[in-house]
Amino acid sequence: MSTQRHLLELFNRLEAADQASLLAFAEFLAARAPASPHTVPQAARSIPEPEAIERPAKESIVAGLKRLARTYPMLDKSEMLGATSDIVATHIMRGTDAAQVIDELEDIFAEHYRQLKSGTRG
User: Fold this and answer.
1) Cα angle at 100 between 107 and 78, to 5 degrees?
2) Are 101 and 88 in contact (CB under 8 A)?
3) Which sequence spans correspond to the domains of the chain?
4) Which of 52, 56, 58, 90 is a good FRET partner for 4, with 20 to 30 A between their CA atoms?
């Protein structure tokens, strides 16, 4: 079975929300790929909207990071590594409230998304 056919088969088995996530992830990967004659220029690509994933009332920082990664699959997480790791380290060292840390992480992800949409970031 060809890779394309296999991918299409897997895609068709998914629920609509999972199909949207897979498509967003594929667009994210394609955006990172080196330009080729078949690659659509970044300006011509549409940047998907974040997934609307509700934040649970009580959420651990690790779960929050995972939720944000699913919410913003189009972002390059390595670009946020410094800021996010600093916040998590501060939480571990000072024992700051997990909800406050997650609020800060949400702000970082949202700002990186705004920069991506405005064209001021990768």
Assistant:
1) 45
2) yes
3) 3-118
4) 52
